[in-house]
From TrEMBL:
Catalytic activity: tRNA(Trp) + L-tryptophan + ATP = L-tryptophyl-tRNA(Trp) + AMP + diphosphate + H(+)
One GO MF term attached to the UniProt entry: tryptophan-tRNA ligase activity
Superkingdom per UniProt: Bacteria
Region span, Disordered: 202-242
Keywords recorded for this protein, A-Z: Aminoacyl-tRNA synthetase, ATP-binding, Cytoplasm, Ligase, Nucleotide-binding, Protein biosynthesis
GO biological process: tryptophanyl-tRNA aminoacylation
PROSITE patterns in UniProt: AA_TRNA_LIGASE_I
Function: Catalyzes the attachment of tryptophan to tRNA(Trp).
Motif range ('KMSKS' region): 206-210
First-listed, main subcellular location of the protein, grouped into a coarse class: cytoplasm
Native organism taxonomy: Bacteria, Pseudomonadati, Pseudomonadota, Alphaproteobacteria, Sphingomonadales
InterPro entries the UniProt entry points to: aa-tRNA-synth_I_CS (IPR001412), aa-tRNA-synth_Ic (IPR002305), Rossmann-like_a/b/a_fold (IPR014729), Trp-tRNA-ligase (IPR002306), Trp-tRNA-ligase_bac-type (IPR024109), Trp-tRNA_synthetase (IPR050203)
Protein name according to UniProt: Tryptophan--tRNA ligase
Motif stretch ('HIGH' region): 9-17
Organism whose genome encodes this protein: Aurantiacibacter arachoides
């Protein structure tokens, strides 16, 4: 089992990142080690430059994200934790895969359409090519499991398409005609509950780091008071909660809050509604705020302890990068060789 996933060090990590991705990294880290596999989690700093950004901010956010991941339970002794910029193989393999990815495939990516909006001509080439770098990120390590939120499912399918076409077009054949694939086709690991947490201000948009309004998300580093006030001000409707999940079908905001409660408490949505159904948000929101503070409070406390020890955070990234460089070497060499590129 090889687990690979990444998170952009842009903005503040939020509840959606935690429930959709980070919590699963921590779970898989133990499974991978138990099975004699590897877990690699990287900060996608090369992805972060695909949007307008402030260099000083990116630098600071990268260290903050390392502190957050460790505070959430990622253990640098068991997980290879690094940033892309210190492992040049990511950028190299992306270029090699650019010859295989098709313009049409990338044009169909919903994240590209969402992030570019109406101004496609004004976007960076990096924002368009982003999913090719993402494919390189996981193919480089022969990933078998890729824990991501539901919003990244399409990009992972693209990574599989790129891997398949590359293997098909370039994988060397042995004497008996059998293919020796260069890349393993990665599987998404998307547990159903909490796969997509929505904005607190608009139940039709996903919670995002890049959303300008801070009130739209619960940050993992928010104080208990901030969490409570964000939940209190979250958009809802005037109806009491239904007693069964089916009653949430047309109520995006209510469905999101109940879904968050279910994911945090480890209960099914129906179980949450058995307890809270028939009651209004005046009752449910304080219960949700308490649960958030109880779950995320300890993470925040550990983050505060870790965040200013820059030397230790740099050391984690340097060690992780050295290991990632070694692990990526064989696949990168195989890709160069399959394409017929001459190297010393
Ligand atoms: P940005 O707005 O900068 O793209 P983001 O909030 O989408 O930030 P990413 O760094 O792109 O965060 O994603 C990190 C991981 O978190 C990915 O696996 C992604 O699928 C997951 N994720 C992001 N937002 C959510 C969400 N609202 N619900 C569940 N998972 C999410
Ligand atoms: Mg994103």
């Amino acid at each position: 089992m090889i687990v690979v996933s990444g998170i952009q060090p842009t903005g503040k990590p939020h509840l959606g990142n935690y429930l959709g991705a980070i919590r699963n990294y921590v779970k898989l880290q133990d499974e991978a080690v138990a099975q004699g596999g590897r877990c690699l989690i990287f900060l996608a700093d090369l992805h972060a430059i695909s949007m307008p950004h402030d260099p000083a901010q990116l630098n600071a956010s990268t260290l903050e994200m390392v502190a957050t991941l460790v505070a959430c339970g990622l253990d640098p002794a068991r997980t290879v934790l690094f940033n892309q910029a210190q492992v040049p193989a990511h950028a190299e393999l992306q270029w090699l895969l650019m010859g295989t990815a098709r313009m049409g495939w990338l044009s169909r990516m919903t994240q590209w359409k969402d992030k570019a909006g109406k101004n496609r001509e004004g976007q960076s080439v990096a924002l368009f090519g982003y999913p090719v770098l993402q494919a390189a990120d996981v193919l480089l390590y022969q990933a078998t499991h890729v824990p991501v939120g539901d919003d990244q499912k399409q990009h992972l399918e693209l990574a599989r398409d790129i891997a398949q076409k590359f293997n098909n077009d370039f994988a060397p054949k042995s004497a008996n005609g059998e293919e020796a694939p260069v890349f393993t086709l990665p599987e998404p690991y998307i547990p159903e509950e909490a796969a997509r947490i929505m904005s607190l201000r608009d139940g039709t948009r996903k919670m995002s780091k890049s959303e300008p309004s801070d009130m739209s998300r619960v940050n993992l580093t928010d104080s208990a008071d901030d969490m409570a006030s964000k939940v209190k001000k979250a958009k809802t409707d005037p109806e009491p909660l239904p007693s069964e999940a089916a009653g949430l079908a047309d109520r995006a905001e209510a469905r999101n809050l109940v879904g968050i409660y279910a994911a945090l408490s480890g209960q099914a949505v129906d179980a949450v509604l058995r307890e809270h159904g028939g009651k209004g948000f005046g009752h449910f929101k304080p219960a949700l705020a308490d649960l958030l503070v109880a779950t995320l409070g300890p993470i925040r406390d550990r983050f505060v302890e870790l965040k200013d020890d820059h030397e230790a955070l740099h050391a984690i990234l340097a060690n992780g990068a050295a290991e990632a460089r070694a692990l990526s070497r064989p696949t990168l060499d195989a890709a160069y060789s399959a394409l017929g590129l001459v190297r010393g």
